[in-house]
């Protein structure tokens, strides 16, 4: 691939190449920041414009939109507690409390640097280890995927602020909501009670926006609003100083590794990576007690991981022809439309194209920093409005965001109901992140568990024998679950001594 | 309160209900949903093939945790209060009206009315500020989505450009 680099660079640094990278990344950030549009819709919207373009610029444009939108999702998550994309849901946990404290610029600074680091690391991984990682991903069958998702679910323990029982119950609620609709194996309708719109289940983004953003609007109006105060104080991104990184670099590296690792596995996704990374950061951070109250470590963990997924997700797509999620499936379609056959021979048959894509991906991640700063500088004056006005604007943006997911009025109804239920649950001390984690991981957990049991003739014990990766992950999940208990017992012993 | 024992008992009961009603509701809902999996006529495929195999595991966990949550609520001493329930009710109802009206009268008109209701109910009284916000924000979003991004929001049946 290195031999094709000069030719690839000449494509990238042509007028068309530079325009595509700049425009694509900027558009991606803006679209990602608008709730509901998200990476898949953004990439699908731009797809028709790429049909008349040449191979390399067309694919570069889509990758720029993809990487830009994943980063852009964090902007609205931090500023208005409305995740632009589901993968930014974990960013709300510490980003929004920072913004409420008057540190919105700093929160965006942390998220931008973490996003750039995550994206760059995954780009390097894409360049140097794509074939090897693609081969490793093939070792992941349903049993290994089930174990990985189980490990992901243990992060419910970490994000259950206040009451562990209520956190776990909220997680069960999320898992249950993911089962409503058509059964993934038999196709039979479950829990629809004859109501036809429920057959396609609850839309994830509608529930996420409802329980995070709309419930926050209702919580705010339930308290006395100061009609002269702005909801967020923001005048642009403030990058963290080098000294502030002390003790946080390890967390960044670990989060990037988690994001890249999960990104390589088809069907897991950036939201899973962000929550697993957040849980691991909380477990290992010396500032664990500050998580959920605006701790930069939490923000770094979720943003580094979800951006690291972008490069990782491209590995099975390019090297094996297996799309990891809806966005990479659209990209796979674009490659095919441009006469490129993804698969094991892609890299040897199209070395210049691959070199241009991989190098372009690296440049896009470098562009996130200046373009992110530019976009937020332009958007800053809009956010200085008084709290009542901001709450009305958030509610309108929530409605637009959910409307664009499928254009289905039923999703809007779900969002409003999720908002009201979320408000009541929060009021009674139920944390909302476990509900979202349950809903995100539920479908993969169910399908992998059932497929695994079908493969092993119903023997769950067989999950532990002959599947070393699964065994390792299950042991890790058990460790994560028992850790709070061990800490509790240790603290009790110290107290009594 | 010692002089009015009945009043004190009512107060304790009210506080108990206020703390635990949601856990109780979740317990009832969990039990009802679990019961529905026993009565429903799903294909009898058995084991992991069954459409209710996974939901039953989840609902069993739900019921156990709801019981634990109910006990935790009963034993808890926390009390909430001081919420502006009227404002919450107005905004919740206006949200339902907004999403019902949007496909009928279009995004612009429904958003304008919704914005006015939210601003008035949250204490804003300056007519110029309210009017400008209620027209400018939906108008800008309509232009952005319908004309720049070509992702059409519902338009009004009365005036095509709204």
Describe this protein with a few key phrases.
heterodimer, A: 497 residues, mainly alpha, two-stranded antiparallel ribbon, 1% strand, B: mainly alpha, 72% helix, 0% strand, flat
Share of helical residues of chain A: over 70%
The H/E string of chain A reads HHHHHHHHHEEHHHHHHHHHHH
Helix content of chain B: over 70%
The shape of chain A, in one word, is globular
Task: Please state the CA-atom Rg of chain B, rounded to the nearest Å.
Answer: 25 Å
Arithmetic mean pLDDT of chain B:
84
User: What profile does the largest beta sheet of chain B have?
Assistant: none
User: Tally of extended strands of chain A?
Assistant: 2
Class computed from helices, strands and strand pairing of chain A: mainly alpha
**Cα Rg of chain A:** 22 Å
Q: Report strand % of chain A.
A: under 5%
Question: Could you write a compact summary of the structure shown?
Answer:
Chain A is mostly helical and 497 residues long. Chain A is 71% helix and 1% strand. Chain A has a two-stranded antiparallel sheet.
Chain-wise SSE layout:
The complex is a heterodimer of chains A (497) and B (162).
Chain A: H1 5-12, H2 15-33, H3 38-50, H4 55-80, H5 89-100, H6 104-137, H7 142-153, H8 155-159, H9 164-177, E1 181-182, E2 189-190, H10 204-222, H11 249-264, H12 270-284, H13 296-320, H14 326-337, H15 346-349, H16 351-379, H17 387-406, H18 409-427, H19 433-455, H20 468-496
Antiparallel strand pairs in A: 1-2
Helix pairs in contact in A: 1-16, 2-4, 2-16, 3-4, 3-14, 4-5, 4-6, 4-13, 4-14, 4-16, 5-6, 5-13, 6-11, 6-13, 6-16, 7-12, 7-19, 7-20, 9-19, 10-17, 10-18, 10-19, 11-12, 11-13, 12-13, 13-14, 17-18
Chain B: H1 5-39, H2 53-75, H3 85-105, H4 107-121, H5 127-148
Helix pairs in contact in B: 1-2, 3-4, 4-5
Structure notes:
The complex is a heterodimer of chains A (497) and B (162). By secondary structure, chain A is mostly helical. Chain A is 71% helix and 1% strand. Chain A has one domain. A two-stranded antiparallel sheet of chain A has the order 1-2. In chain A, helix 2 packs parallel to helix 4 (55-80). Chain B folds into 2 domains: 5-75; 85-148, no CATH class. Chain B is 72% helix and 0% strand. The relative contact order of chain B is 0.08. Chain B is mostly helical and 162 residues long. Chain B is flat. At the A-B interface, helix 9, helix 10, helix 17, helix 18 and helix 19 of A face helix 1, helix 2, helix 3, helix 4 and helix 5 of B.
